[in-house]
Design brief:
Helix content: 40-55%
Strand order of the largest sheet: 4-7-10-3-11
Strand content: 5-15%
Order of helices and strands: HHHEEHEHEHEHEHEHEEEHEHHHHHH
Number of strands: 11
Bound molecules: adenosine-5'-triphosphate, magnesium ion
Radius of gyration: 24 Å
Largest sheet: 5 strands, parallel
Structural class: alpha/beta
Length: 377
C-alpha cells in the first residue's frame, strides 16, 4: 500500500506541510547549528514563533514564516535549549494545549522529521520503541542487521534525530525503564547481534520530546529515575482571547482548505462568538465579569477548532453557505458533554447567564445565538 500521495493524505507531516518555510529558513540560516540539527536554534524559534510578518527572501521570492504556537515565547526558547542539551524535554499540561503540536513542530525544525513517534499506551512493548525482527529472515539467516526492523528509538539514536514519545505516562513502567540507559548512557544494546552491530551509540542530534497530559495518568505515575532525565515544561491554555481567535481562525481555515466539500464561509463575528464561549466557560467568567459555572470536560482550543470545523461542514452541507450562530449551538453539546451529564446544565446555564443579557442588549448575533438554546441537548 505504501505512503498515500500527498493529495490523498488527510494530514501531511509538518516537514512536508511547511516544506517551503523550512527550506527558506535553512537557506538563509547562517547561525551555528548544534551538531545533528537541521536548523540553528534561532531559526527553529522563528519557525515556531513566526517571522512577525517580515518576509525571508528565498529562491527569487519571499516567504513569511507563520506563527505556529501562541503563548509563552520564553517557554519555546527554553524548550529549544533543553533539546540541545543532554536532557529530554517533557511537555506537560491539560489536554488540547498544543503539547503534541509543539513537539511535532520542534521535531520537524530540528531533525527535519516529525514521524519518529511512539504513542504511549498500556499495551506498548519494548520492541515497538527499540527494534523488532523480520521473523522470516530471522529463521532463515539467524539474527543479522538485515533481519532487524528498527523502531523510532533505534532510528533516532542511529541517525541523530529527535524521537517523540506521546503520552509517556501511559506506557508501562518496564517500557519507561528502557529509556533510562538510552537517555543517560546514550547507547542502545542489541544483545542478539555480535560485535559492533550489537551496540548502537547515539549520534549527536538525538534527544527525546515527550508529552503527558494532566487529566489521564499524571506525571506522578512516572518513575523518579525517568523524571530526573527530563526537564518539564508546563503549557497553559491560551490566555488572551484575541490569540485564541487567531489560532481557531487559522486552524479552521486550514481544515476547510483541505476539504473540497467545505464550501461555507466562517464570518469573523461568528468565529468570535465561538471562541468567546469556550474562553468564558473555561475561565468561569464572562468578559463583563459575570460568574459562570465551569464544565468538568476540557474546553480546550482544540475542541473549539473542532466545533468550528463541524459547524463549517454543517453550513456547507445543510445551510446557506455561511456559518450561523445556531450551527455552533448544534455542535457544542457533542463536544462539551462527554461523560458528565451535568455539563449540559453548565452549557444551558451559560445561555441563561452569559448569552441572554447580551441578546437583550446587543440584539443581532447574540439574539440568534440565544434563540439556538433549543439545540443544547
Ligand atoms: N497555544 C497554542 N498555540 C497554537 N495552537 C494551539 C495552542 N493551543 C492549542 N492549539 C491548537 O490545538 C490543537 C490541539 O493541540 P494538541 O493535539 O497538540 O494538544 P495536546 O496538548 O497534545 O492534547 P492531548 O493532551 O489531548 O494530547 C492543535 O491543532 C493546535 O493548533
Ligand atoms: Mg497530545
Amino acid at each position: 500500500m505504501g505512503k498515500p500521495q500527498a493529495e490523498e493524505a488527510i494530514r501531511l507531516p509538518t516537514e512536508e506541510r511547511c516544506a517551503a518555510e523550512l527550506a527558506a529558513l535553512a537557506a538563509t540560516d547562517d547561525a551555528p547549528r548544534p551538531a545533528g540539527w537541521f536548523l540553528s536554534p534561532r531559526a527553529v524559534e522563528t519557525f515556531i514563533l513566526g517571522s512577525r510578518d517580515v518576509p525571508i527572501e528565498h529562491d527569487g521570492g519571499e516567504v513569511v514564516i507563520a506563527r505556529k504556537f501562541y503563548g509563552d515565547d520564553v517557554l519555546v526558547q527554553r524548550a529549544i535549549v533543553i533539546l540541545a542539551s543532554d536532557r529530554g524535554l517533557l511537555l506537560v499540561g491539560e489536554p488540547g494545549t498544543a503539547k503534541s503540536w509543539l513537539s511535532e513542530h520542534l521535531a520537524a525544525a530540528i531533525s527535519g522529521d516529525s514521524l519518529l513517534t511512539v504513542q504511549g499506551s498500556a499495551g506498548l512493548t519494548e520492541d515497538q520503541i527499540k527494534y523488532a525482527w523480520n521473523y522470516a529472515l530471522l529463521l532463515a539467516e539467524g539474527p543479522s542487521k538485515r533481519a532487524l526492523v528498527p523502531a523510532p528509538l533505534y532510528i533516532g539514536m542511529s541517525q541523530g534525530k529527535l524521537v517523540r514519545f506521546e503520552e509517556i505516562t501511559r506506557a508501562p513502567h518496564e517500557v519507561q525503564d528502557t529509556l533510562l540507559s538510552c537517555m543517560s548512557d546514550k547507547v542502545l544494546h542489541v544483545p542478539e547481534l555480535p560485535g559492533d552491530d550489537g551496540v548502537v551509540l547515539a549520534r549527536r542530534g538525538f534527544n527525546i520530546i515527550a508529552t503527558a497530559n494532566t487529566r489521564d495518568r499524571g506525571v506522578n505515575e512516572m518513575s523518579s529515575a525517568l523524571k530526573r532525565r527530563f526537564n518539564f515544561e508546563t503549557i497553559a491554555p491560551i490566555d488572551a482571547l484575541d490569540q485564541e481567535i487567531r489560532v481557531v481562525r487559522e486552524q479552521v481555515g486550514d481544515l476547510m482548505a483541505c476539504d473540497e466539500a467545505a464550501t461555507a464561509t466562517m464570518p469573523e463575528d461568528v468565529l468570535e462568538l465561538l471562541v468567546t464561549t469556550f474562553h468564558e466557560i473555561r475561565s468561569g467568567r464572562t468578559t463583563d465579569g459575570v460568574k459562570l459555572d465551569r464544565a468538568s470536560s476540557v474546553m480546550s482550543t482544540a475542541e473549539a477548532v473542532s466545533v468550528g470545523f463541524h459547524s463549517a461542514l454543517f453550513a456547507s452541507f445543510f445551510g446557506d453557505g455561511a456559518v450561523e450562530p445556531a450551527h455552533l449551538a448544534i455542535h457544542l453539546a457533542g463536544t462539551v458533554v462527554k461523560d458528565n451529564p451535568d455539563d449540559l446544565k453548565v452549557l444551558r446555564s451559560y445561555w441563561d447567564v452569559g448569552v441572554k443579557p447580551r441578546a437583550a442588549r446587543e440584539k443581532g448575533l447574540w439574539k440568534a445565538y440565544f434563540a439556538a438554546r433549543k439545540h443544547l441537548r
